[in-house]
Amino acid sequence: MTVLNVVQAVNHALREEMTRNDKVVILGEDVGIDGGVFRATEGLYQEFGPNRVIDTPLAESGIIGVSIGMALYGLRPVPEIQFMDFIYPGFDQIQSELAKFRYRSGGQYTTPVVIRTPYGGGIKGSHYHSQSTEAFFTHTPGLKVVIPATPYDAKGLLTSAMRDPDPILFLEPKKIYRTVRGEVPNDEYTVPIGKANIAREGNDVVVFAYGAMLHVALEAAELAAAKGINVEVVDIRTLAPFDIETIINSVKKTGRVIILHEACKTCGFGAEIAAQIAERCILNLKAPILRVAGFDVPFPYVLEDEYMPNAPRVLAAVEKVYNF
Amino acid sequence: MTLELLQVIKPSGESVAKMEPEIPKDELRRLYHVMVLTRNLDTRGLQLQRQGRIGFYIGCLGQEAAHIGSVYALKPEDWVFPAYREVGAMLLRGITLNQLLDHYFANSEDVQKGRQLTNLFGVKTANYVTGSAPIATQIPQAVGAALAAKIRGDPIVTLTYFGDGATSENDFHTGMNFAGVYKTPIVFFCLNNHWAISLPVERQTASETIAIKAQAYGFEGIRVDGNDILAVYRTTKDAVEKARKGGGPTLIEAVTYRMGPHSSSDDPKRYRTEQELEEWQKRDPLARFRKYLERKGMWSEADEKKTQDETNREIDEAVQHAEKLPKPALETLFTDVYAEMPWNLEEQLRELREEKRQGGCDN
What we know:
The complex is a heterodimer of chains A (324) and B (363).
Chain A: E1 2-5, H1 6-20, E2 24-28, H2 44-48, E3 53-55, H3 60-73, E4 76-80, H4 91-98, H5 101-104, E5 114-119, H6 134-138, E6 144-146, H7 151-163, E7 168-173, E8 181-184, E9 197-200, E10 205-209, H8 213-226, E11 231-235, E12 238-240, H9 244-254, E13 257-264, H10 269-281, E14 290-294, H11 304-307, H12 311-322
Parallel strand pairs in A: 2-3, 2-4, 5-7, 6-7, 10-11, 10-13, 13-14
Antiparallel strand pairs in A: 1-8, 6-12, 9-11
Helix pairs in contact in A: 1-7, 3-4, 8-12, 9-10
Chain B: H1 25-50, H2 64-71, E1 79-81, H3 87-92, H4 97-104, H5 138-152, E2 158-163, H6 170-182, E3 186-192, E4 195-196, E5 199-200, H7 213-216, E6 220-225, H8 229-244, E7 250-255, H9 274-281, H10 285-295, H11 301-324, H12 343-358
Parallel strand pairs in B: 1-2, 2-3, 3-7, 6-7
Antiparallel strand pairs in B: 4-5
Helix pairs in contact in B: 1-2, 1-10, 1-11, 2-8, 4-11, 5-6
């Protein structure tokens, strides 16, 4: 075991998988000599050379389109998009191409590409370095969407992603790149895609969260415990396809549901969880489902702290459903 | 260089001897045969749509020399990233009439399981990648495959087809730029057919030619008479050999004409004149190559009749076979979205089966 932060865990996963599988290649802006603007690929260019870690021109549709071609040819590209906010020039390649190749070719062609990109607020990055638009991508059949919240999961999920037969959008919560540290095995291990994690057990209320918001949920759970409310926290981890069984079990156990994400509330991923709960176990609910989410506004700059969901806001929602 | 239009066969059928590529007689005859097969299949495709027997058709009338001549310059291990107006390229790559007609009818034998509009087709064993309707998206992908081959040390070339309209898209410029930077073994093959649905090429670009755009990306652009199969072959072969030797990419602009509608849903009379079409009909690529072969004593009236009859009979047989087959199975609506079907798709398939069962269907 070694204590690592999230970005170090990502780096370890990349290095180890590149060592095991010479088909894994990294490409993106500044990922080579510079090691990436967040240093996720630090040292890899020096270790694996320019044919495995490829600095690209500044063009996201090119990075993703070229990755698709490499995957069709048999490589395992792991492109980095520098910030999720810059992914949109490549959206056509993700939506119309990457996610559709297996289906449209009748299973002849596959595109196992893992797109890594830092997402989310909390770094005073303003509108264009802070957004969480995972819902655009969870609405895309053929694509998997994975979001780790701990160093352990970052390494284990990324390793699984690089061995998965399907294309994956791997969203890295940049707010906790360096602030969350944890023990990570030195040996090879994987964390399964498609499985949620019960990060804290409780009986009174369940909070569903992912990414940086997991830690806000855990903080709120501590505050609630001091008030005698026993909160369960579930880390969704894979948004597409998400773990319906764990979600429904926690709803049945607690009967009170908070869904937490920093993305805009309307049509956010929380809406899907709420709808699934309503369809499957509405009669198990003791209170309305509440969402604690980002506001339906462009991501702010100076008022970021007001925008981002925090533990007091989650606690207020927990108390509201508890006392309903 | 980029303004010249390379030509080997004049419209009269006479040729420029020093420009003629070395192709054996049997191969020349085979190329013409594939052109005829393509023309007849294309005609039949549009007819089948008009008769309501297939849902949609998008054709390549007038562009046969451009795509058949170019794909002939490739080796089997090379990769093609097509657009959708390259039916003859599919045939020459070994994709069979049965495979194509099963796809046109979107039946249970269609290798793509009835999931794509007509001529958005690919067969992996032919190294012919399944295309899509968004324009120019295949261009950076072709660069990626070429880059992968270069990294792996495989001596293969990729060739990607696109139209003049595609040169307005971001992905054209991005793909060209990446290829220039990495010097990938690729041929960018633009079928400049003068029309992107209703817009003439002058409304796509203010550049004097499309070929000239290559200069900005640091490699060569060449214009060729796209209705002259030998000129197309010669040009493409040079570009492919250059790429294979590590010389990097080439942009080829094949100047041709879309003699038919954009698709079965389009009426070109709304935006272009009959006179313009008639001018290009005089430059028909099949008529020109046939005249060339006849002048060389390689083709006769009897050959022509035999080829027309044979190709039409083969098409008939493939149509009859394809039309009899049922639709793909219900579950193919849900398979191949992912390698393994996730719970939500399994659930939706169960619900659809139940709906069908209650409705009295047993699909």
